[in-house]
C-alpha cells in the first residue's frame, strides 16, 4: 500500500452555482501551481451541498473550463452531494460531545441583535439559542459552540493571526435549517478525509480558517496549511463582481486563448514580468509564493 501521509495534496473546491469567474480561475491556477511546484497532487472537489443553488451543468462546464486552461486534476472529482452519510457521522460525533445546539433564529432575529460596529456584512452570533430548551417539531439550524479563547494560526502567505471565535464569529452553523450541510462542516471533513495538506483560496475566506482549525481539532483531524490569496479588484479597488459578465469564463473564452489568459493572470500574480502567453505546466517551474503580492491586485481586464 502507498503511504498516503507523505503526499502533498492541494485542492480546488468550487461551488457549481454559476460559471467560473476570473477570481475563481486565479484561485484555481495558484492552488494548482503551489502544490504542483512541490511535486504534489491537485484534487478537485465539487462543493454542491446547497441543493437550491448548485447545478450539475455548472459542474460539467467547470471541468471543461479547467481542461481548457490545462489545469488537470488528479484522481476522480469528489462531489459533496454524494457524501451526506459521511457528514452525518461527524455531525453526530459533535452532537454526542455536547458541542452543538439547535438555533431557531431567523435572519431578521440575527440582524436585530447586531452591535452597530459589525457593519462588514458579517453576523457575529451572540448565542441567543445556546441555553434554550429544545423545541421539538420546530425547524432549527444546528450551531457549534465555539471557545472564548484566541486561536493562533499562521497563514502561508499573510503570516501570523490570532482569532477569538466568540468575539469575531460566534457559535457557527454546521447544519442549516433546511437540513443542508454547512460549508464549514463539509469542508473540514472532506479536507481531512481526502488527505489535503494545503488549502489555497481567496483572502475573503481568511476568517474561515480558525473555524475550520477548531472544528478539525474537535474531530481529531490535523489541519491543512492555509494559504490565502490577494483578491482581484477593479480600478476603483473594489473586488471584481460576479455580476460582471465580461469576466466570466464563458466570455473570457470567446476573447482569449487559454495561454493568453494564463499569461495575464501569471503577470498579475507576479510570476512573469510581462503578460506573455504561457501554459500552466510552464508556470509550475516559475512558481514561488515570494513572487505573489499580498496586496489586492488591481486588474484592467476588459
Ligand atoms: N466552495 C467554496 C468556494 O467556492 C470553497 C472555499 C474553499 O476553498 O475552502 O468559495
Verbal overview:
The structure is a single chain. The protein is an alpha/beta fold and 302 residues long. The chain has a 3-stranded parallel beta sheet, with helices on one face. Strands 4-5-8 form a 3-stranded antiparallel beta sheet. Strands 6-7 form a two-stranded antiparallel sheet. A hairpin with a 3-residue loop joins β6 and β7 (159-164). It has 10 helices and 12 strands. It starts with 8 loop residues before the first strand and ends with a strand. Helix content is 33%, strand content 17%. The structure holds glutamic acid (GLU). Glutamic acid binds next to β9. The site of glutamic acid (GLU) has 8 residues, from β9.
Helix percent reads 25-40%
The N- to C-terminal Cα distance equals: 50 Å
The name of the CATH topology of the largest domain is Rossmann fold
Bound molecules: glutamic acid
What is the total tally of β strands?
A: 12
The side-by-side strand order for the widest beta sheet comes to 1-2-3
Question: What is the H-and-E element order?
Answer: EHEHEHEHEEEHEHEHEEHHHE
| Apparent shape | globular
CATH architecture of the largest domain: 3-Layer(aba) Sandwich
Please tell me the overall pLDDT: 93
**Number of continuous helical runs:** 10
Content-based structural category: alpha/beta
Strand fraction equals 15-25%
Indicate how many domains the architecture comprises: 2
Amino acid at each position: 500500500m502507498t503511504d498516503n501521509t507523505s503526499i502533498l495534496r492541494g485542492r480546488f473546491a468550487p461551488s457549481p452555482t454559476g460559471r467560473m469567474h476570473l477570481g475563481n480561475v486565479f484561485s484555481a491556477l495558484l492552488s494548482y501551481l503551489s502544490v504542483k511546484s512541490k511535486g504534489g497532487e491537485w484534487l478537485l472537489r465539487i462543493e454542491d451541498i446547497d441543493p437550491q443553488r448548485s447545478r450539475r451543468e455548472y459542474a460539467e462546464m467547470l471541468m471543461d473550463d479547467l481542461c481548457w486552461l490545462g489545469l488537470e486534476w488528479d484522481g476522480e472529482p469528489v462531489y459533496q452531494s454524494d457524501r451526506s452519510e459521511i457528514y452525518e457521522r461527524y455531525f453526530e460525533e459533535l452532537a454526542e460531545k455536547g458541542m452543538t445546539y439547535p438555533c431557531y433564529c431567523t435572519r431578521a432575529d440575527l440582524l436585530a441583535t447586531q452591535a452597530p460596529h459589525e457593519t462588514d456584512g458579517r453576523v457575529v452570533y451572540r448565542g441567543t439559542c445556546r441555553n434554550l430548551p429544545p423545541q421539538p417539531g420546530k425547524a432549527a439550524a444546528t450551531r457549534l459552540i465555539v471557545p472564548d479563547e484566541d486561536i493562533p494560526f499562521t497563514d502561508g502567505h499573510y503570516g501570523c493571526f490570532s482569532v477569538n471565535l466568540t468575539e469575531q464569529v460566534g457559535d457557527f452553523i454546521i447544519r442549516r435549517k433546511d437540513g443542508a450541510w454547512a460549508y464549514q462542516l463539509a469542508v473540514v471533513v472532506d479536507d481531512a478525509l481526502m488527505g489535503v495538506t494545503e488549502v489555497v483560496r481567496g483572502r475573503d475566506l481568511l476568517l474561515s480558517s480558525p473555524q475550520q482549525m477548531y472544528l478539525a481539532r474537535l474531530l481529531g483531524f490535523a489541519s491543512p496549511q492555509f494559504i490565502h490569496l490577494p483578491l482581484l479588484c477593479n480600478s476603483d479597488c473594489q473586488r471584481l463582481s460576479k455580476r460582471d459578465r465580461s469576466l466570466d469564463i464563458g466570455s473570457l473564452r470567446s476573447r482569449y486563448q487559454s495561454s493568453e489568459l494564463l499569461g495575464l493572470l501569471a503577470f498579475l500574480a507576479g510570476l512573469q514580468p510581462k503578460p506573455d502567453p504561457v501554459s500552466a505546466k510552464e508556470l509550475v517551474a516559475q512558481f514561488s509564493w515570494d513572487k505573489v503580492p499580498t496586496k489586492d491586485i488591481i486588474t484592467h481586464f476588459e
